[in-house]
Write a structure and sequence with these properties.
- By secondary structure, the chain is α+β, with helices and mostly antiparallel strands.
- The chain folds into three domains: 6-69, Winged helix-like DNA-binding domain superfamily/Winged helix DNA-binding domain (Arc Repressor Mutant, subunit A); 90-132 and 232-342, Beta-Lactamase (2-Layer Sandwich), CATH 3.30.450.40; 134-226, Heat-inducible transcription repressor hrca homolog, domain 3 (Enolase-like, domain 1).
- It has 13 helices and ten strands.
- The strands form three sheets. Strands 7-3-10-9-8 form a five-stranded antiparallel β-sheet, with helices on both faces. A three-stranded antiparallel β-sheet has the order 4-5-6, covered by helices on one side. The protein has a two-stranded antiparallel sheet with strand order 1-2.
- The chain is elongated.
- The relative contact order is 0.13.
């Protein structure tokens, strides 16, 4: 990594900020007029040429000004985070708490509505990820006969999640048996995480080998199928907001964005990994592992219940993003949700 002196740092941040404000290549004269650096356009032009050689800026055309590279954005974002108090607008978050506070006992709805607010405030994609199924705590399970060999499972969790799925069963199991099985599972496993329950089931089934047709064995098999959720739930809002940005003016960029959103499993894996991090995380352009997201930036922050991460909220947008505002919104929204969850 190149070491920049204070003058070069200020010029680089000025170019990045100018390009964020207006999506046109930035020239030395423009920087001279907008910022009081006390330097001539020629000096600033030379500094910008040096920054280009270092990989922080690039020049789309010979006669054009310069635009930031992903490395330039990274330096700019790291500078913002180091400053700490880089953006403050309490009014921007007014009204969110009252609207979301009533949803704190229904985690899925809370996260879904949060993505709408994130998108509305930032004009980018609002995203949220529900708690990992492995750490979700069972509160109650209901079983309802759906067809002769199918049962509808409704899981209620301590985190406020409601999960539904249809699983296969032996056709001879009646609704009366299902009620007894649900009662048994609730008495045995309520208060345990899905991961803990799966471990207990393995031990219980090994003891039940001699009674394969018993109701307990059937309960174990039903519970095992009912608790299988390979991925957390992903919520996304605001595609129309993003498509209005000049960064997505051509069809190729729109297709890239659409593919990135459609590849939910990859995004879920990325967010799930980031959920274990502390505070706001910013992934810029080429830092993304997904090819379709290498022209996008992701800003996320985990929501906590005590020391445990129970979800992630964030924003996806172009690399030419208003990072100061986006980081502020994501950071304060995650803190807001964490505070609400602590008050449940």
């Amino acid at each position: 990594m190149f070491m920049l002196n204070e003058r070069n740092k200020k010029i680089l941040c000025a170019v990045v900020q100018s390009y964020i404000n207006f999506p046109d290549p930035v020239g030395s004269r423009s920087v001279t007029k907008k910022y009081s650096f006390g330097l001539s356009p020629a000096t600033i032009r030379n500094i910008m040429a040096d920054l280009e050689d270092m990989g922080f800026l690039t020049q789309p055309h010979t006669s054009a000004g310069r635009v930031p590279t992903d490395l330039g954005y990274r330096f700019y974002v790291d500078s913002l985070v180091a400053e700490g108090d880089y953006y403050s607008n309490i009014d921007i978050l007014q009204g969110i708490y009252k609207r979301l506070e009533s949803l704190k006992n229904d985690m899925d709805t809370l996260l879904s509505e949060t993505t709408k607010d994130l998108s509305r405030l930032s004009h980018y994609l609002g995203i949220a990820l529900s708690p990992s199924p492995d750490i979700t705590t069972l509160k109650r399970i209901n079983l309802l006969k759906y067809k002769a060999d199918r049962v509808a499972v409704v899981l209620f969790t301590d985190e406020g999640l409601i999960k539904n799925k249809i699983i296969s069963i032996d056709s001879e199991i009646s609704q009366k048996d299902l009620n007894r099985i649900a009662g048994y599972l609730n008495s045995e496993f309520s208060g345990y995480t899905f991961d803990e329950i799966r471990l207990k089931i393995i031990k219980e089934m090994s003891r039940e080998k001699s009674r394969c047709d018993s109701l307990i064995s059937k309960a174990m098999r039903i519970c095992q199928d009912a608790l299988y959720f390979p991925y957390s739930a992903l919520f996304v809002s605001g595609l129309s907001e993003v498509l209005e940005l000049p960064d997505f003016a051509d069809l190729k960029k729109i297709r890239e964005l659409s593919r990135a959103i459609e590849d939910k499993h990859t995004i879920i894996k990325l967010l799930d990994k980031l959920s274990e991090s502390a505070g706001v995380q910013v992934i810029i352009g080429s830092e993304n592992t997904l090819e379709e997201m290498k022209k996008l930036s992701v800003i996320v922050s985990p929501c906590k219940e005590g020391e445990r991460s129970i979800g992630v909220v964030g924003i996806i947008g172009p690399t030419r993003m208003n990072y100061a505002k986006a980081i502020y919104i994501v950071d304060n929204t995650s803190k807001l949700i964490t505070k609400m969850l602590a008050e449940r």
